Amino acid sequence: MEALLSLAFDNLSSYDQGKIRKGLRQVEGLLAQICLSSNSKSAAEKRRSVIDPGKEPPPLKTLGDLGNDLAFVEFFKLQNGFEWNVAMRLCNCLDRLMGKSHDDQNDLLIIQTLDLIQGSLLLHPPSRVLFERELFMNHLLDLLEPVNCPAIQSGTIITLVCALIDTPKNTRAFENLEGLLTITSIFKSRETTREVKLKLVEFLYFYLMPETPSIPSANSTVSVPAMLQRSPSKLAGAFNKADTGARNRSESESEVTKTTEEKQVLLGRFLSSVDDLVADLRESTPFGGALC
């Protein structure tokens, strides 16, 4: 796995679009092998089925299977170190792509990079600590600007959600960098497409949820995310087996959490209809939880 990652990272560090595209495909192939269930197909056939939309991909592994999957366990452990962390390399690749001139090929590479960042953050939640850094959080906010195509804006919103899940410190970084102003300004803009506005509304629902700290800082032992603890027999079990050094959430994280009411006040500075959003959130509980 280290050899494959090394090859992919070499391509991702290039300024050549062809090599970057190859590196993204290599990372995608690796994540596909981890996520897709084993069957009679070879690894190469699995990768092709994911990359080629005309082919039916094999079924996903169940969450309960991950804890017993040696490839996932090895991948998870490698991600705990700086040298082999996929999310870090993808964020650095995104940085270089954003420095290039806008064209269809570059936009497509940005969208593919965002998709893979989402996958890496979901497979290895501790990597979300990267978005405590202003540099990477600012990249996401910059990609939301109208100068970018709607597909990039939509992909960025989903990536932002993946970066903020159960990570209050990241949410505070988002707020400190005027993230709420950016989100609401784009939502109010007449230039913003309907598809992007729908995703922005979904993001605001997500943002208003009460926070639960779970992802540790970079120098602490990896812990099981709260979102995984909701199903201890499958989700938490899988990640516990992937890293036996799990421990309780840090007190420092608990100190930076905010309630729905506190975030309602913050968002209310930029959006007049925030009370309606909160009322709807309390009634519909779109994310399967309840607001007190």
TrEMBL record:
Task: State where composition is biased (Basic and acidic residues).
Answer: 244-259
Region annotated Disordered, chain positions: 239-259
User: Pfam families recorded for this chain?
Assistant: CDC14
Q: Which PANTHER family match?
A: CELL DIVISION CONTROL PROTEIN 14 (PTHR34065:SF1)
Put simply, this protein is called Cell division control protein 14
**Where does this protein come from, organism-wise?**
Cudoniella acicularis
